[in-house]
Structures are given as C-alpha cells and as structure tokens.
Amino acid sequence: MSRIIAILMILAISGQVAAHGANSYAIIVRNESVMPESADLIVNDTLVLYNTAAWERTAGIDLDGDGSFEHSCTMSARNTTSNEDECQFPFWSNQSWVAGDYVVEVHQNGSFWKEISVELLPDNHSEPAASGPYVLLPAFDPMAENMAMIGEDGSSFSKSEITLPPGGNAYLYSSNAGDFTILSENGDSLCNISGPAGSGCKIWFRADEWGIGEHELRISQPNEGPSQSLTINIQSSGAEDTRAGMVQMISAAGVVLCLLSFALLRSRGSSGKE
Question: Disulfide-capable partner of 130 in 13, 109, 188, 207 (CB 3.0 to 4.6 Å)?
C-alpha cells in the first residue's frame, strides 16, 4: 500500500510540472562531436545528453570557475536497455538556477573533450502573455518552422511569414557569404549576419517587448535597395496551454483513480482470504 501511495504522490507532482510547461532538450554526444553544440533553454527546462559512443564519458558545469564541477554526471557507453548512457541537467528555479550563460563540459579518458554552450532565458510564465516555449534547433535546418534563409539575391527570404508564440525565437541565416543587417519595422537593428554562407543569427522576441500580432522584418545591405519583408506573426498560446494543462491534469487524475481502485480491490481480496 505504501508503494502505491508513493506512486500517487509522484503522479501528482509530475502532473503539476507538466502543466507548467517545462521541456526537455536533447544533445547527442557522438564519437567525434556533439550535436548541437549549443542550446537555448528557459528556466525549468532540462538538458539531456545522450552518449552514443562505445566508452564512458562525464559531463559537468563549473559555476565558479574553480576547476571543479558543481553539477556533474556520468554517461555509460551506449546502452539501449537503460538510461545509464544519458546525463540530465535540470535547470529548475527551485534549485537556484537563474537566467544566464552556462557551459557544460564533456570529458572522456579523464580529460576535457568538448563543451556545450547553454543560454538560459527567464521563465516568463509569470507574465500574462508569455508562454514560450523556446525552440531548440539541432542545426541550421531550413525546414524548421521558426527559421528563414536569406536568398542568393541578398534581398529576399525563403518564406514570407514565421509564426511564433510570445517569447519565441526566430533563426535567420544566409545562403551566400555577405554582410546583412536585419531591421525591425521601426528601422532598429535586430542582428547582424556576417561571414560565409550558412552564417546566421537568432532573434529573441521578448514577450514584454513584442506584442501579439504581425511585425515586419527587413534586410539591410550597404548600397542596396529595398528588400522583401518577413512577417513575424506572434500568436497567443495561452488558451492552448490552458487546454493542454487541463488534459494533463485530467489524465493524471484518471490514473490516480485507477490505482486507488486497484488498491481498494486488492485490500478487499486480502481481507476475504483472511
């Protein structure tokens, strides 16, 4: 009976966390590389590293720069029958994590090997119109919904519109080498793309600065004429989040009721035998 009560408590807690909208993001730790090498998270998200190599690795975060990890874990060699080959870093507010930049170091054979840059953004759930989530891209993926490519002519985008939730990110990158500045509808510079083909930038549409509705972005190049606009359509997802939270809570309640019924029947069966 005590085991069932423990399960019920876990379900109740997990239901609350799910309704809050926390997300988990995956980093693949390959034989020779990690993919991706950076992650955009919000407070209360969890970063999960999966080791696909045939040898053990460790990962950790050194918060104060003293050479020792304040947070660390070990990933076994690739294991398809358990989760021993993964590391989890919960960036939860109740564990004193705050918005900022962090580095996750990956070590193998006792030495530093690779690092993963983490940009931890504030959890905007306390703001009326902010719901996230921030989108993690495994790489520059032209098919991603929140990504657009600057065309070869340097004055057009690969799509005309990107739809984002409040507080979302848009990723823009160039198909050719060049120097591009992305301007807001008010003419403010949002980011600069400079370098070889494939260079890009991320634009964070903060919920407290960008309202619900459509916003126009344009490309600016030295000595170039007007360019095609890109519409950023910020849509409120509050109603969807509320419905999703209700569904999760109802599902959790259903499981709890089933377990209680099972416990009651089992208790009656034991009494009958006695």
Answer: 207
